[in-house]
Amino acid sequence: MTKVLIVDDNVPSLNRLTALVSSFGYEPITATNEVEAFELCGTSNVRTVIAKASMNGTGGLDLCRKIRSASYNGYVYVMLITDYNDQQSVIDCLDAGADNYVLQPINHQELRLQLLAGQRLVALESRDLIIFSMAKLAESRDTDTGKHLERIQEYCRVLAIELSKDEAFEDCLDSQYIQLLQMTSPLHDIGKVGIPDRVLLKPGKLNEEEFEIMKRHAELGGVTLQAAADAYPEAKFLKMAVEVAVTHHEKWNGTGYPKGLRGEEIPLSGRVVAVADVYDALRAKRVYKPAFSHDEACRIIRESSGSHFDPRIVDAFLRIEQKFDHISQQLAECIEPICTEQMCVESV
Ligand SMILES: [Fe+2]
Ligand SMILES: [Fe+2]
Questions:
Q1: Among 124-128, 157-161, 301-305, 334-338, whose mean pLDDT is lowest?
Q2: Ligand positioned closest to the Cα atom of 155
Q3: Which ligand is nearest to the CA of 257?
């Protein structure tokens, strides 16, 4: 049963709300002040909190601010109870970081639906975590690349934001697209789970035959994710995940793989991930190559504009190249890579 923490300094109203939340099928936990409630948040794995904003003065608002500045394993959805028709109180609740507010006297149906909305938000976060865990699992099989996936997410995010300022992309690159790209970019190499150990784990440069086998990871990832996308056609993130997995090794001039797509035949998501992935591979030390400096990586990407990469994306990259360097330092690898990943570098 989902736990809901209910916080109110007025015991009779606390009991009424507890009975109501219980009748909706949740497991209520109660507290009568913000200190006790904050402790429970840390120890009871609570993901939903309903608190009276004005308890003990501004206790509900203070609790909400403390929850927002704390770091928990997952997101904590907070609803604050406030007085009916008190607009300033509503503003104070939202300003304190509440996700939602409940007006007094409480409308039972409204509270039930707001709790469901909270569950949906928490479930969405779980979905993002599962996606990222799947990608991490696939990544962990071949190489200890430290925070490669975290860096890819950040590179894609900043690059897509910059690209959205280009009028050629402003219609398609909205905030939802950028969020989806950030979520799905770590899945680009998920197809490596289907590559045999002798190729994936080879501690040196791949020969031609091995490289051909390694190249299959793009299609393998696409096929796997496409099965999920067919089952849930309304899930936009799965559609984009397929694009990213299949097309992140395609090249603007048509010489990439697996299909040899050319120019705008390559989905935008794949074109953005390609730049991010190559930059990260260039900056990494591998058995067969040193780590390139940021300036060297920029030079290689600039020289690959119009051949490997979409020129507009390279232009956007060059406008914000300092952000890439910053991300690479902020999310630096703490462990030396123990194996090889030459596909990205080989292709530039
Ligand atoms: Fe790849
Ligand atoms: Fe990668």
A1: 334-338
A2: 2
A3: 1
Residue 147 Cα to ligand 2 middle (Å): 11
- Residue 190 is classified by DSSP as G
- Centre of ligand 2 to C-alpha 125, Å, is 23
Query: Nearest 5°: phi and psi at 8?
Result: -155, 135
Taking a C-beta distance cutoff of 8 angstroms, is the pair 18, 6 a contact? yes
Distance from residue 343's CA to the centre of ligand 2 (Å): 9
Going from the Cα of 278 to the center of ligand 1, the distance in angstroms, rounded, reads: 10
Q: How far is the CA of 85 from the centre of ligand 1 (A)?
A: 56
Give the pLDDT confidence score for residue 336 in this predicted structure: 44
Domains of the chain in start order, with CATH, are 3-121 (3.40.50.2300), 143-346 (1.10.3210.10)
Judged by its nearest atom, the ligand closest to the C-alpha of residue 149 is 2
Instruction: Looking at the CA of 280, name the nearest ligand.
Output: 2
State the Cα–Cα distance between residues 301 and 307, nearest whole angstrom: 10
CB atoms within 10 A of CB 335: 9
Ramachandran region of residue 56, left (φ > 0), alpha (ψ -120 to 50) or beta? left
Catalytic annotation, residues:
192
pLDDT of the residue at 231? 80
Quick check: helix, strand or coil at residue 127?
helix
pLDDT attached to residue 119:
87
The overall average pLDDT reported for the chain is 89
83 pLDDT band, cuts 50/70/90, is confident
Distances (CA, A) of 154 to 160, 186, 267, 334: 10, 10, 19, 17
Please give the Cα distance from 60 to 34 (Å, whole number). 7
80 class by beta-carbon count within 10 Å (0-12 exposed, 13-18 middle, 19+ buried) = buried
How far away, in angstroms, is 300 Cα from ligand 2 center?
A: 17
User: What is the DSSP-derived secondary structure letter of residue 291?
Assistant: P
